[in-house]
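Inputs:
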Amino acid sequence: MLLVILLNNPVASALSLVMALFSLSGLYILLEAPFVAVLQVLVYAGAVMVLFVFVIMLLKLRPEDLQQDRVTIGKAGVVLLGVPFVGFLIHKFLSVPVESSFKPVAANFGSPKEVGTLMFTKYLIPFEVVSILLLVAIIGVIVLAYRSPTDRD
Amino acid sequence: MINLHHYLVVASLMFTIGLAGLVIRKNLLVIFMCVEILLNSVNLVFVALARDFGLMEGHVVVFFVMAVAAAEAGIGLAIVITLFRKRQTIQTSDWNLLKG
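Outputs:
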C-alpha cells in the first residue's frame, strides 16, 4: 500500500494498488463477507484498475515529469507531522471496548442471497438512486471524452 | 486473537497513507489512486463493523460505496484525458493558470 504513493512510475503504483486490493479482498473473506470480497476483485481489481492502467498507457507521459514527482525526504518529513493524527485515531479506536474475538455468526452471513434480499427490500430506493448515478456518470464521461471528427489534431 | 481493533487500526493506517499520498504526489493519476485507497479504508471499517454487530447493512453500504467509486474513477479519468489534451501534462504543479 505504501508503494502506491512512494513509487515513481504510475504503472508500478497501479500494479501495487491492484496487489493491495487483492489483499483487502482476502481480509473481507476473513470477515465472513464473501459477496463483498468477490465484488472487490471484480469491481476494483478488475474494472477500475484496468481503467487506470488504460489511461496511463493512453497518455504520453514525459520522463522528466516522472522525475519531478519524486518523493523527497523533505516532503515525507512534512507528512510525518500527521503522525499525531494517526496516533489519535488509533488511540480512539483502541479505547472502544470489544470482545477478544468475534462472535460466531449464522452460516449464511454475508452470502449474496442474504445481502441481495436486504438490498432489494429495505434499501431499494438507495439502490435505484445509485443506478441513476451510474447512468449520469456514463453520459458525463461520454460528453467529456468525446472529440468530434473535425477538431482532431 | 484477531479482533475488531486490528481491522480498525489497519483501516486507519490505510486512510493515513491515502491522505499522505494525496498531499505529496503531483501526478493526477496517482492522486486518483489515493482517493481509491481512502474509499477502500472506509469500506474495510464498514465490513469489520458489520461482522462485529452481526448485521449485513454494512455490506449493502459497501456495495453503494463501490458504485460511487467506480463512477468517480470514470468521470475523473475522463477529466484527466480532457485536461491532458489541452495542456499535454498531468502534473498538478503545471496547472497554475489562476496564480496571480
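Remarks. The longest helix of chain B spans residues 57-87. The CA atoms of residues 84 and 90 of chain B lie 6 Å apart.
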